[in-house]
Amino acid sequence: MKCKKIIAGLFIYVGFASSVFSQTTGKIVDANQHPVEGATIVMQLPDSTYLGATISAADGTFTLEPEPENYQLIIQHLLYKTRQVKGQARDAGVITLESKDYNLEEVVIEGERPFVTVEQGKLNYDISAISEKHIVNNAYEAICKLPGVQDRNGKLSLVGAKDVTVILNGKASTLTQEQLIEMLKNTSASQVQTAEVMYNTPPEYHVRGAAINIVTAKADDNTIQSELSTSYSNQYFSSYSGNVNFLMTKGKSSLNVSYNPGYSHIMTVMDLASQHTYDGKVYDITQTQKINTKGWKHNIYAEYGYQINEDNELSVGYNGALSDNGKGTIDVNGNFQNSHNDKLQDSRLHNVFARYSSGFGLDLGVDYTDYTMNDKNRLESKLTDNTRQLLDYTSDQKIRKFSVYADQSHALANDWTLKYGVRYDYTDNKNAQFFNQTEGKDDVGNSSSRLYEQITNFYGGFDKEFENGLSLSLSATGEYYSIGNYHKWAVYPQASLTYSPSEKHTFMLGVSSEKDYPTYWDMQTSTTYMNAYEELQTIEGLRPANVYSVNANYLFLQKYMLSLFYERTNDYFTMDMYQAKDRLALVYRTQNWDYYQSFGMSANVPFNIGEWLSSQVNATVVNDRNRCDNFWDIPFDRKKWACMLAMQNHFSVGSNLGFDLDAMYRSSMISGISDTKPVFTVNVGAQWNFLKDKASLSLNCADLFDTMRMKVRNRYAGQHIDLNMGQYSRTVSVKFVYRFGGSISKEKKEVDSSCLLYTSPSPRDTR
What we know:
The chain is mainly β.
C-alpha cells in the first residue's frame, strides 16, 4: 500500500515596528550534549503575552526574530520534559532538556478524595474511599461507617431521622428491611460503588422520609472482576462462611453474581429481674435465659443487564435466602420456672425483579417476593409450685408480595424538570399456629389469620437548577392504603433546597412527610409463648405512622458537616414490655403511641495526621419525647435529653498494613415507659494487604471489653423490670479475601514508520 507522506511545518512570526528589537538565538541539546531537532520554542513576555515561536534545526539551533528586554522561553519535545527558561540577552545560550521516561506501565494520580459530595439534595459517599480508610468485612459494615449511621440491634438508624429505609439501585424492593440488611451483610464492600444518604427522599425512589440508596458497582468494559473470601468468627460459639462475587461486562451485557454459604452458631443471654404485683402480692421473679441458635444459610444474588442501545437498558435479577433445619434451644432457669424449648426452623425467600430505563426519561419496574417460614416448637416448663406446662406447636407463615412502578421525567425550558409516576403494591400474608399437644395451660388454641394489603401511590413534582448554585425540588404524593378493614387516602408533600455558593460551602434544607408501615409479622394476630412467664403478642388494628420532619445541613470543604433536625411521628409504633395485671405474664407487644418527637443537632469532623492517621468524630445531642394516652392502663408522657459520641481511627503502617480503633458512647435514653442505660464499646481491627493488593487478611474484635449490652430498666407506675440483654457480645473474626480479574484486554497495533515525517535521534531505546 502506497503511503502518502504528510509534510507539516510550523513557523509563527510576530513582527514589531520598533528598531530596538533584534534576533534571539540559542541551541537545544540533550543530557549527552547531542543536538535536539524538532523542539518547539515559544517566546513570551513575563506576563505570558505571546511573542513568537519556532522549531529547532538539525543542529539544535533556533532563531526568534523579536528580542525584548525581558522574556521567557518554553521548550517542548515529544521525547523530552518541558522546560521553561528566562532570558535578557540576544543569546539564550545552550538549553539542556531531560529525557522523558517512556517505560510507563502505570500512571498513578494521587489526591485526597472528597469525603462527601452533594448532588440534588443527596449526600454521596464513595464506599471504596471509605473501605480504604476502614477495615470492613462487608457492605453493611461499610455503610455503618457513614456519619450519623448506627446499627441498633441489627437495624439501621440515621441521626436526625430515627428510622432509615435501605433501597437498592434507586428503587424500593419488596424485600423487608431485615432481609435487605441480611443481603448487605453477605455482600462484599467492593460490590458497592456509592451510598446516597437522603434525609428527604425524592418521590421517584418510592420511599418517603430518610433513606440510604445502595448503588452497586459495575465492571469496566470487557472485564471480569472476581472475589473469593472465607471468614471465621467466634461469639461464644464458632461460625464460618464463604463468599464468591463475580462481576463481568462484555459488549452490551453485564453480569453480577454472588453466592454466600454460611454456618452460624450464636449464644445470646438475657438476665431478667421482675417484681410483679398480682392479686395483691409481689412476686420476685429472676431468671437467666440462654438462646442457642445454629444452622446453615445460603444467600444468592444474580443480576443481568443488557444495554439495548445508548439510551435504553434492561436488567433482570434474583435474590434468594435459604435456611434448612435451623436448630435452636432456649433454656430458662430461675426461681419461678425452669423451661426448655426445642426449635426447628426452615425458611425460603425468593425475590425476582426486572427494570427498564429509557433515554426519554421513562423507568419501568416489576418486583415479586415469595417467602415461607415453618417453625416447630416444643416448650416444656416446670414451675416452682411443682406444676408442669407442655406446649407442642407449629407456626407457618407465607407471604406473597407484588410491586410494579412507572416513572417519567421531562426536561422543560429554563432548566426545569417535570417528574411524575405511579406505584402499586399488593401483599398476601397468611399466618397459622397449630398446637399438637398442650398441658397445664388452658388459654391456648389454634389460630390463623390472612391479611391483604394494597398500596397505590402516585406523585408529581418539579426540579430546578439555578445558575447561582441553587437547586429546588417540590413534589407531592397521593396514596391509598388498604389492609383488612382499614382504608385511608392521604397526601404527603415534600420540598428540598440546596445552595452551593462555592465549592467550600453547601447548605441543604428539607421538609418532608411520610407514612411508616408495620411489618408483616406485626400485622398478624397471634400469641407466641416464649416460656412460662414471657409472651409475644401481635394484635389487630395496628395503624401506620405518619412522620413529619425538617432537616438542615451545612457542609464545609466537602468534609465537615453540621446538622439540625426535627421529627414528629404520629401513631408511632414499637414493641414495649408490660407486666400483666390479670396474670403472671410479661407481655411484649407492638402497639401505637400518640406520638414520638425528637429534635437536636449533630456534627461530623474528619481529620488526618500525615499519611498515617485518618480519623472521624461524630457528636450528637438530641431531645426525645414519647407520649401514649392508651398504653394498657398506664398512660405516659416522657421526655429526656441524650447524647452520643463516636470516633473512628485508622492507622496506616506503610502501604500494606492498617489498624482500626473505634469507640462509641451513648448516654441513657427513653423508650416508652422504659429507660436504657448508657453503653460504651470499643472495636479494634488489623488488615494486611499482600500479593500486590490482590489478597488481604483481616482480624477484627467487635466490642473488645464485652460492654455493648442493652440494659433496660422500668420503674414506671408500679412496673418493676430489669432486663440485661446481649451477653457474649464480644466477637472475634478472621477474614481472607482474594481478588482476581479486572484487567482490560489489550490490543497491539503495528505502526508503519514510513508514514512519519521525520525521526528524531533518541537518546535511548524506548521500546
